[in-house]
Every structure is written in structure tokens, then in C-alpha cells.
Amino acid sequence: MNEAMAEKGGATARAEGLVKVYRRGAEEIRALKGIDLEIEPGEFVCLLGPSGAGKTTTLNLLGLMDRPTGGRLDVAGHVVGDGARQSESELDRVRRENIGFIFQQFYLMPTLSALENVEMPQLWTGKPDRARARALLERVGLGHRMAHRPGELSGGEQQRVAIARALVNRPKLLLADEPTGNLDTRTRDDILALFRELAGEGLSILLATHDQELVGYADRVVQLDEGRRVA
Ligand SMILES: Nc1ncnc2c1ncn2[C@@H]1O[C@H](COP(=O)(O)OP(=O)(O)O)[C@@H](O)[C@H]1O
Ligand SMILES: [Mg+2]
Predict the structure, then answer these.
(1) pTM value?
(2) What is the CATH classification number for the domain harbouring 220?
(3) Residues with beta carbon inside 6 Å of ligand 1?
(4) pLDDT tens sequence across 169-190
(5) The domain containing residue 179 runs over which residues?
């Protein structure tokens, strides 16, 4: 934990009054209307809500992929919004050092092996560590698939590669956007069990889903509807 985090009381991420308005021409879409939420170290939180509720928007803001229209955001001790003016490169650095993402579509590089995919984010941080990439693939149960390309892996295996890739730079926060949406129920349950283990090791996880069945795996549920927190 760095000093800034200790000062903020240790939460991995905290949003206060988070607002996001998208503008498309003359149209304004109020995607988030003032959301408060907090994720502690080692917590596995399910962000539940129907399509259009604002889940992906919330993940994009917490992941520093996009800037809030209003409210305050604190990610690993770095404050964003409410007049805080970081450059894009500063936000990129905070993101790369603190946040891992996984998505429903996996987004692996099709021409690279599983091992090369996991190594990719190390290019951004300039700390190549093939042993760590290998160890992570072992950790997610793919020690025997390191040389395979994504097209030679099942959906569940591809998502495990994506999880290993998301962890390679030792993030504090894993943001997962409908990560089991393309998986069968058994593979889904395996991935959720892996999330539980990772949270047990101190990783904070925010899992966005519309699927009520997933909430049983999480420590806690934050529920969104039409841009508001309803539970
Ligand atoms: N880039 C964008 N531009 C305009 N509207 C957007 C954009 N992204 C999302 N929205 C709108 O914001 C609302 C919330 O979307 P989203 O966060 O993707 O919800 P969810 O992930 O819960 O389905 C929706 O009405 C959606 O159409
Ligand atoms: Mg979404």
C-alpha cells in the first residue's frame, strides 16, 4: 500500500456523487446521476443492473478510461474529478500501475500465444518478467496451454488468459465487465471461483453484470438502475 492510500483510509477505489453525462450532438444522456460506492482491498463487489443502468460507464470512470462530468473519484489514492486536473499521461500511468480490465469479448491478440498475450501489458510498464507471466498462467490453470493462440483455446481458457494478462502488472483493482457473458454456466462458475480466490489474496474486484445468479459469489452487491444506485 502506498502512502496516499493509507491517508484515504485504505479503500482501493471510492466514488462520491459520480455523474456522467454523454453528449451526442444536441442530445444529453445522463448515464450516471450521482453514484456513491467504495471497494476495499480484497473485496469482491458485484455491480448489478439491467442493460443501460450505467455499469460499463461506472467501470470506465473507475478505470480512468473516461473522465467524470461531476463528482469525486479516488482510485488507489489518486483523486480524479472535482477540479483535479491530471494530464492524460498521468491518468495512463495510474491506470497501468493500479488497474486490470477484463471484458465479455476477452480481447486477446489473435496472433500471439497465451504467454505473449499475458506479457503484453509489461511493455507499457517497461518491466519484462516472463517468469511472472508463466506463473500467472499456471495460477489460472493454463500451464499446459502457454504456447496456444487464442483461436486454439476454449472460451473459458481465453478468459483465463485475459485474467492472467490483467494481473501481470500487479493491479490493486480488477474491473470485469460482463466477464462470464460468453461462457457456459460451468465455466462461468469456475471463473467466479477464481475471482473469489484472487480476492482472498487481497485483490479488489468489481464485477459488472446483469445476471442475478452471479451475486452469490460476491461479498457485496451494488445495484444500479437508470444511472442511480438503488441498493
Ligand atoms: N459513449 C456513449 N455515448 C452516449 N451514450 C452512451 C455512451 N455510453 C453509454 N451511453 C448510454 O449511457 C447509458 C448507460 O450505458 P452503460 O453504462 O453502457 O450501461 P450498462 O453497462 O449498464 O448496460 C445508456 O443509456 C447508454 O446508451
Ligand atoms: Mg455494459
Answers:
(1) 0.94
(2) 3.40.50.300
(3) 22, 24, 29, 31, 49, 51-57
(4) 999 999 999 999 999 999 999 9
(5) 3-106+172-229
